[in-house]
Amino acid sequence: METFFKVLAGFVHERSKVIVAACAAVGLVCLVLVLRMELRTDMLDVLPSDDPATEALRGFLDTFGAGDNLIVVVERSDGAAVTADLEAVDDLAARIRATGLVEFVDFRVHGSASLVMEAFPLFLDEKGLDELERRISAEGVRRRIAGNRRRLLSPLATPADFELMRRDPLGLLDLAASRLMEDVPYGRTGYYTTKDGGAALIIVRPLSSARDLAFLSRFDETMATVARDFEADHGGLLKVGLAGPLALAMEARRTLGGEVTAAFVSTAAAVFLLFQFVYRKRLLMLVLTAAALALALLATLAAAYLLFGGLNIVSSVVAAMLMGLGIDYAIHLCNRVEEEYARAGDVRAAMERAWPAVLPAVATGAATTALAFSTIVLTSFRGLHELGLVAAIGVAAAFLSTVFFLGAAIAIAGPAALSPRRPAAGRGRLLRLVKDRPLSALLAAFLLTAASAVTAGSVRFDSRAAQLGMEGSEAARLEERLSATLAQRRNPLLVAVAAASPSELLARYDRVESTLDRLASDGAIGGFSSLRTFLPPLSRQLRAIERLGEMDAATIGARLLAALEAEGFEPDPYYGEYAARLAGALSRRAPLTFGDLEKLGEKRSALFYNKERAAAAAYVYPVDGRWREDRLAEAAGALSALEGVTVTGGPVILRELRGAVIGESVMASAAAFSAVVLILALRFGGLRRAVLVLAPLAAGALWTAGLMGLAGVDFNFINVGAAPLVFGIGVDYGIYMVRGWDEGGEEGLASAGRSVLMCAATSVAGFASLTALSFKGLASLGTVIVMGIGASMAAALLVVPAAAALMDKRQGDRVPTR
Q1: How far apart are CA 437 and CA 361, in angstroms?
Q2: Is 647 helix (H, G, I), strand (E, B) or coil?
Q3: Rounded mean pLDDT of 76-100?
Q4: How far apart are CA 41 and CA 774, in angstroms?
Q5: In this predicted structure, which of 68-72, 98-102, 563-567, 809-813 has the lowest mean pLDDT?
Q6: Range from 250-259, 444-453, 635-644, 774-783 carrying the lowest mean pLDDT
Q7: What are the counts of helices (DSSP H) followed by strands (DSSP E) for the chain?
Q8: 134, 332, 622, 745 - which has most CB atoms within 10 Å?
Q9: 818 touches 744 (CB < 8 A)
Q10: What is the dihedral of CA 780, 393, 728, 386, to 10 degrees?
Q11: What does the pLDDT look like over 63-84, one tens digit per residue?
């Protein structure tokens, strides 16, 4: 291998200008590709692409558009009720509609109210039907109208009370509201509002989906402009907030791009400051190193574009990662070339001496790192899968860019880039202390390992979706606040019912509703939203029709008009219309069908019914906002057993993925470790040196787990991929230390120790920037890898010198150079 790198050094020196030109051309092509790539912020892009539960979720969202709804919230800045400003809601809805970017804007109870007069008895349960029978009796009608008169004569009566009693003198809207408005935002005012009147809601469906990133960007900017202008026109008294799935998607798009860019810039600044401060290179060397890293990064991103069309939420951090990892290769190459140049005074001679000495170890480190990263492809979690493959390509690109571009650039620049100073021999006080007291050092390592084994036992796998989302999300906070007043909960199971015909769908939907009622009465679920808001289950309708046949409804119109006259109400043509519609509703003998629902014109029904696909939906919520394992299994099992029913959603997917991801991560870690062992055995000609490299790696991995337990950091679906990454990064430190020992004994260990410290510092700079990201899954990934880097570095600096000292003592001399 040493001969190969010596020949390669000569080749790069001779062909330096051609190589630099070729690299520049490659970089230009890569830049063109990178400018076309997209940053995908949809969480579906990180889930397994071939998993049945994930595919079911995609199908559900496509069918019912549940992921593309935006909830626009209007509140008063002084905290007062917004019910006095409902005309402003009409104004805002008109502005949103005028953008031309929406399919519909829904903010008033339109079609639902007409059902009260047309078929409201079919929505009632047994208690509701009992109450209806009492209200339409002669005594019930008389008592209700008399009560209306007393309320209107009260000093507290308002014009709104008069209008409500005029439109519904028997209060049948109130009677039906318990079912009709069960999952509709409180609609007594005719608008969707919270029950306390503190906020008015506008439900917006855009023309395109959240996965259309170009549209999402345009829609986001347009909505921000509409909200800003609306608030300004109302003097700041009214404020606009955004909630719902689309708001979260828009927030993620805005936040992630900026934060990833900031992480990359801060990493680059920290890395190059460390590089310059520690090694004090000439400015030209710093520029050439930056160019080499930029070339590697462009090549990596171009590969991501060609393979995946862009980056997802998880793989978006690869740029910051590579900045910290890629400079390691430049550090080793530049340092050794400068050392040899200081001795020989000739650039070519320096390269031909430096490359055989340093590149075998660097190549081994790059190979082990890339292979360790690539083992993540064994996981089905798409986010980790793409991250591992892109990172592996990035490591290879960084190594090749360092060897060819940076090597050729140094050959061209010559003395202008290289410092003529010969570096002073390092003393390495810490390493000397370890080497002088090897048994004490190994005992310390053993005690740290034992302590880590204890604290690592507290590390758990946290499968909650909340551990992956954004920290401090405004949309999430608003949604959480609204959920308390809208009778809506979070973390729903998504239930889809499909059939070959409308009649079959109605029958299957009825069985789903019966099952949901049973689960709710048993306490297995906290509630559900379903199509019953617009179309009652068939069995309930048939029972209502049966009860209507038993009621005295033939003379309801005459009884109502007589009671109104007796209480002194002035004649009003509307009362006659009301009585006629009421008589028609009470005489209904045919159930509502999907055809009636389609005529209704209620936009929100699209969340529950898709005519083209003959499908209906329900949203099932947990007790107290969080699914318990046994309740989730009971609910999902009971619903999945029904014909034509598919159950999906975050709780189901995370439950199914948890075991798979843990098992696959263990498999990926084992594969990474095996690949590392194989490469090291080949590199060092046997297992003895390989074991010396692996010992600190194993200790560092356990110390990392111990630090996680000590800091209270649990594994989740994102940071579980840190294990093979830590293997890939940490193994380099052992390689560099063993190479230093083989090459120069104590002095070589000291020199290698300084390089390991610098490499660890730059890697920490690359991953530490991730800990500041708002996305908690990515931040935890950065935290775990930073812990892993620190632990692996400490283990390498402690174990290798101590073991080397014992081996030297046993053999009576240093082991010959290999």
Answers
A1: 27
A2: strand
A3: 89
A4: 13
A5: 809-813
A6: 250-259
A7: 29, 11
A8: 332
A9: no
A10: 40
A11: 887 778 888 999 998 888 887 7
Q: Which two tokens stand for residue 43?
A: 């969480």
**SS3 assignment for 570-622:** CCCHHHHHHHHHHHHHHCCCCCCCHHHHHHHCCHHHHHCEECCCCEEEEEEEC
Residue type, 22: A
Half-sphere exposure of 320 (CA within 13 A, CB side): 30
Q: What is the rounded CA–CA span in Å between residue 333 and residue 365?
A: 13
What is the rounded CA–CA span in Å between residue 25 and residue 7? 25
Give the strand pairing for 493-498 and 645-648.
Answer: antiparallel
Show the tokens assigned to 309.
């069309």
Strands 102-106 and 527-530: unpaired
Residue 469 three-state SS: coil
pLDDT band with cut points at 50, 70 and 90 for residue 429: low
∠ CA 289-280-355, rounded to 5°: 50
Residue 469 has pLDDT above 80, yes or no: no
Task: Return d(Cα 705, Cα 448) in angstroms, integer.
Answer: 12
The C-alpha atoms of residue 516 and residue 13 are separated, in whole angstroms, by 75
* Residue whose C-alpha is closest to residue 527's, from 604, 608, 617, 624: 624
E-assigned strand segments in 211-275 = 238-243
Q: Could you give the CA distance from residue 668 to residue 727 in angstroms, rounded to a whole number?
A: 11
- What element of type H or E holds 320? helix 318-344
CB 530 within 8 A of CB 620: no
CA–CA separation, 474 and 136 (whole Å)? 49
Cα–Cα distance measured from residue 517 to residue 179, given in angstroms and rounded to the nearest whole number: 13
Task: Assess contact for 796 and 698: CB atoms under 8 A.
Answer: no
Query: Cα–Cα–Cα angle for 458, 460, 462, nearest 5°?
Result: 145
Largest CA distance in the chain: 119
The number of angstroms, rounded, from the C-alpha of 405 to the middle of its chain's C-alpha atoms is 37
Contact 216, 247 (CB under 8 A): no
- Rounded distance, CA 228 to CA 383, Å? 35
How far is residue 575's CA from residue 561's CA, in Å, rounded to a whole number?
A: 7
Per this entry, what is the length of the chain? 818
Distance CA 150, CA 367 (A): 87
Find tokens 């160019």 and name the residue.
Answer: 291
pLDDT in tens, 178-225: 555 555 555 556 677 877 778 888 889 898 887 787 888 899 999 999
3-state secondary structure of 530: strand
Q: What's the chain's average pLDDT?
A: 83
How does DSSP assign 504-529, residue by residue?
HHHHHHHHHHHHHHHHHHHTS-SEEE
Contact partners, residue 262, CB within 8 Å, separation at least 6: 769
Which tens digit of pLDDT belongs to each residue from 301-346? 999 999 988 888 888 888 888 887 888 888 888 888 888 888 888 8
Would you call 712 helix, strand, or coil by DSSP? coil
Residue whose pair of structure tokens reads 């029950």 in the numeric block: 195
Helix (H) or strand (E) holding 498: strand 493-498
Name, in order, each residue with C-beta under 8 angstroms of 764's C-beta and a sequence gap of 6 or more: 324, 786, 789, 790
Taking residue 664's Cβ as centre, other Cβ atoms within 10 Å add up to 21
Tokens 């299994």 correspond to 633
Residues 6+ apart with CB under 8 A from 533: 112, 179, 180, 181, 182, 183, 184, 604, 605, 608
Tell me how far apart the alpha carbons of residues 786 and 789 are, in angstroms, rounded to a whole number.
Answer: 5
